[in-house]
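INFO batch 0412 | record 1 of 1 | parsing
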Amino acid sequence: MKTKMLLLLLLFSLAGWKAVFAQAAQPGGAATVTLAGEQDELPLGLHLEILKDPSGKLSIVDVTSPELDGRFVPSDTAVPSYGCTDSAYWVRFRVRNDGQQAIDRLLELGFANMHFIDLYQPGPDGAGYGVKQTGTLRPFNTREIAYHHIVFPLSFPE
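INFO prediction complete | emitting tokens
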């Protein structure tokens, strides 16, 4: 995997980290990622909104509720980093495909030692979320792509 293409709604968790990609951000949040057909790489750091969960007990239902929507904070750095922590971090970003056809991308997490990563994607009918779970403390066969970094294949309809 020499080409790095990044995109979608992400949730990553690092032994207590959890990143979640929710559907939409309020005005004033991070900018929407707009897909183009031939992008090789698109760093997402400044497109993220982040919610710190010190208890590590929030669920996808909690973080997508209107009550917690305003607690997400736009990232002000290209590469957010929180060091070693017991807190969970929910991360979301919005993606828009303005093209006339579906676009496939890879979402690569640049830090190879994230213990638990949960990626939530909105269901096909817009209700509920599908989840993909992987990380360095989960079996290697939980990765859809065998690579030293964690990579998720993603598809964005027209």
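INFO post-check: The CA atoms of residues 120 and 131 lie 4 Å apart.
INFO record closed
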